[in-house]
Structure formats: C-alpha cells, structure tokens
Write a structure and sequence with these properties.
PIN-like_dom_sf, alpha/beta, 8 helices, Rossmann fold, globular, 5-stranded parallel sheet, PilT-like protein, PIN_dom
Length: 166
C-alpha cells in the first residue's frame, strides 16, 4: 500500500527509517506521510524505542556529514571522542520536531516488552521491530510505515513502504 492510499482518519505506526528518510531529505513520500500526520489527517504513532533509534542514527549521520568522523564504525569513533558529540546540534533539533508533527510517542512498558517476545518468536523479528509491532497491536493499529520488508511477513498488518527509496 502506498502512503497516499492511507485513508484520512487512519492510524499508522511509523518506523525509524521513515523519519531518517524525511530528515535526510531522501524520500519525498516519507515527508508527505509525516506532513499528513502534522495536519492531523492521519493519526501517527511511534515508540520511545524508535525515537531513541532515530536520535542515534541522526547523530551519527550528522557526524559523518560534517566530516567529524569517517564512515565505518561511527558509534565507536564517537564513543572514543565525546568532544565531537558535544558539537552536534542538528540531530537534537530534528528529534524535537517529531512530537511537533503530531506523532504520538508510545512509552515502552514491561507488558509491551513481554508482548514483543511473542512477536519475535512468531515472526523472527528483531527486538525493536517486535516492540513496534506489539505497540501496533496494543493501539489496535493495522498500518505500519516502514521500509523494513520483515514486516511483510506479519499477518493482519498493512505495510506501507516508500517507493522513492531504493
């Protein structure tokens, strides 16, 4: 299903890659989806886990883009040079824009973690993906925006993928 096919008033959970594509400017479709959430045309959700993942990835992307570290083991390079992390500001501004887009951020609870284990065992999903799926179920949401094809295996879930990202 394409992002523009999502009916007004629908709920959609949003995976980290959609935010990364938007903030890095590589997917107009991802930006369009987030604009629909901002206009409250559709109801957007994500989890605190996804928020942390986006923050981490945007921080690393900023460090590479500014030439402060080389591509490769970026996290290790940043960990060994904390002074570089203190110079990074763009990722912090970007992450704060997510709630301004009317994205509801779902907290991770103990119960959600236990539900995630069930999804991991049923579909072979990684931890963050299974937490996202458990949150979808908890909020009675059948739509997930992600470029992760692992979610295509999940029954009773409609995966929305940006078509402008290879």
């Amino acid at each position: 299903m394409r992002f523009e096919e999502l009916k007004a008033g629908s709920k959609v959970f949003i995976d980290a890659n959609i935010f990364i594509y938007h903030f890095s400017g590589i997917s107009e479709e991802s930006s369009f989806l987030l604009e629909r959430c901002e206009r409250e045309e559709i109801l957007g959700f994500t989890t605190t886990t996804i928020l942390l993942e986006v923050m981490h990835r945007l921080m690393m992307l900023e460090a590479v883009t500014k030439g402060l570290v080389a591509p490769g083991n970026i996290a290790k390079n940043l960990k060994s040079k904390p002074e570089i992390v203190t110079e990074l500001t763009i990722y912090a501004e970007q992450i704060q824009k997510i709630p301004e887009m009317n994205i509801n951020i779902v907290p991770i609870t103990q119960d959600l973690c236990f539900q995630a284990v069930i999804w991991q065992q049923k579909y072979g999903l990684m931890t963050n993906d299974s937490i996202l799926l458990a949150a979808c179920q908890e909020h009675n949401c059948r739509h997930l925006a992600s470029n992760d094809s692992a979610f295509a295996r999940v029954e009773k879930l409609t995966l929305l993928q940006p078509m402008d990202v290879l």
